[in-house]
Write a structure and sequence with these properties.
This protein is α/β, with parallel strands linked by helices. It folds into 3 domains: 89 residues, Immunoglobulin-like, CATH 2.60.40; 269 residues, Spore Coat Polysaccharide Biosynthesis Protein SpsA, Chain A (Alpha-Beta Complex), CATH 3.90.550; 88 residues, no CATH class. 27% of the residues lie in helices and 25% in strands. The relative contact order is 0.11.
Length: 508
């Protein structure tokens, strides 16, 4: 007699939204979606494990699922969102698509690029990290911004001459504390100097990539009740991707810049929510600072808990905190204080948080593994798995009437076609990705955000109705224009001419 198959023993059931599996009590069942790990389910005492999919992680209705037990795949089948019953494994597109209704887009009446942002960078030693951080900010920041760098009485003799090299750059302020004030007081000094601007707290051991501040701005302005937005990182504790609390290596074959660009394009706009942010790279709404004050210097003089306390106060005032999963910031971590001291400061800060906010850890625990966060980590794993198969390039939107597939090299080109019968967005020679009956500001806003358009080539259509809509939305969302195709490759001086850089000048 043949023994029952593992799949039969699991008795998988799919009702269109929820997957049900059967195994021994406390058994661990790994769920793999389209070839990448999604979650480990633990069967209850009744031997049942369930996974509800609030939306498709890939953006496709059909998904291939695998079930892994003790490192071995024991079942594989297909499912379709909102369609009950199991299907067979089929060859499906592996291109990540948008997340549809789960996306949090900038509303049509919001103006995220109009507001000034002050980027506050506290400095204490670690000269190589500081130089890398500041150079990345100068290279990749667009929109109305100021850079405020404050040396907290560094003992490293290289810091002062290094910072002097940035003094003559417009929009950059280099300051020094007369004595060591500690991290939190230095941050508060920067917040005060920022005036009415929103504030980014950026650690001096962080490195940013293209569109980093544009991405944070868009997430912050996705709702009026959003207090802070924190980037994701290779090494930032709960904000690390794809594996939490780990130092995640960059995918083999990609640079940091390429990895950051890949996440910008494909990590999705679901923006998981947490009851806190992380000051390694966190954008704060100015109105929240006005409402609850700055950071608590007395309780957290050296940091490690000050942003968590601030965020909890914001929560108490009715605000939320989001993770911008499409903004990757590299983080060295512990260079200024060292690992042992960082751990000691972290323990001390957590004790204060427990006393002030007894539900803090429970609230973090209940949201840290939300479905949106699971989807983000899964999409980053998928992105990493594709490394080596292609090299990410900036995304250029071209108009079909102006040649569509022609124009500058070095871009991932999307083509917009518009006529009396409607409009469509896609790649030259492929089926449309998006279609609409007419092209207006709302469609333009959705498509430009959803597909992370980095640049728009208007060609000869600058003064047309379509060109006017695109130019207006590009300005609102912080997307530079190329008025013609006579430009150099992506990254060249000519190609960047349309970008609204905030900083000018050069290091001497």
């Amino acid at each position: 007699m043949n023994s029952p198959s593992p799949s039969t023993l699991l008795r998988p059931e799919w009702d269109g939204r929820c997957l049900t599996l059967h195994k021994a009590p406390s058994a661990v069942l790994g769920v793999v979606i389209d070839g990448s790990r999604f979650i480990d389910l633990v069967a209850g005492q009744d031997g049942v494990a369930r996974l509800e999919l609030a939306f498709s992680p890939s953006g496709h209705a059909c998904l291939d699922l695998g079930i892994v037990v003790a490192g071995a795949k024991v079942a594989a089948f297909g499912i379709e969102i909102n369609q009950p019953g199991l299907g067979t494994i089929a060859t499906r597109p592996h291109v990540l698509r948008d997340l549809g209704a789960a996306e949090r887009l900038v509303p049509i009446d919001a103006t995220p690029m109009r507001r000034e942002v002050a980027i506050v960078v506290p400095v204490y030693n670690a000269a190589e990290d500081v130089e890398r951080c500041l150079d990345s900010v100068l290279a990749h920041t667009t929109g109305p911004s100021r850079l405020i760098v404050i040396d907290d009485a560094s003992t490293d003799a290289r810091i002062a001459p290094l910072l002097d090299r940035y003094r003559n750059i417009e929009g950059v302020e280099i300051l020094a504390n007369p004595e060591n004030l500690g991290f939190t007081a230095t941050v508060n000094r920067g917040i005060a100097l920022a005036g009415r601007a929103d504030v980014v707290l950026l650690n001096a051991d962080a490195e940013v990539g293209a569109a980093w501040l544009t991405g944070l701005r868009r997430a912050l302005h996705a709702g009026d009740d959003i207090a802070t937005v924190t980037a994701v990182s290779d090494n930032a504790g709960a904000f690390s991707v794809p594996e939490l609390e780990q130092e995640n290596p960059l995918p083999a074959g990609w640079t940091f810049a390429q990895t950051a660009l890949a996440l910008w394009h494909d990590a999705g706009l679901a923006y998981p929510q947490l009851p806190t942010g992380n000051g390694f790279c966190m954008l704060i709404r100015r109105e929240v600072i006005d409402a609850i004050g700055a950071f608590d210097v007395e309780a957290f003089p050296q940091g490690y808990g000050e942003e968590n306390d601030f965020c909890q106060r914001a929560c108490a005032a009715g605000y939320r905190h989001l993770i911008a999963g499409n903004v990757l910031v590299r983080h060295a971590r512990s260079r200024s204080f060292g690992h042992a001291r960082r751990q000691a400061l972290g323990r001390a800060g957590m004790q204060v948080l427990r006393e002030r906010w007894p539900r803090y850890e429970a609230d973090v625990g209940s949201s840290l593994f939300s479905f949106e966060r699971r989807v983000l980590d899964w999409r980053v794993r998928r992105i990493h798995a594709d490394a080596g198969k292609h090299h990410p390039q900036p995304r250029l939107l071209c108009l079909a009437a102006d040649g569509g597939n022609s124009g500058p090299s070095g871009y991932d080109r999307l083509m917009l076609t518009s006529s009396d019968s409607g409009c469509s967005l896609g790649r030259f020679g492929d089926d449309p990705i998006e279609t609409a009956d007419a092209f207006d500001a709302r469609i333009a806003s959705t498509w430009l955000q959803r597909h992370a358009i980095d640049r728009i080539a208007l060609g000869g259509r600058c003064n047309s109705a379509l060109g006017s809509v695109l130019a207006s939305e590009a300005d609102r969302l912080g997307i530079p224009l190329q008025p013609n195709h006579g430009v150099g490759p992506a990254g060249s001086d000519d190609a960047q001419a349309g970008a609204r850089h905030s900083f000018s000048g050069s290091k001497s």
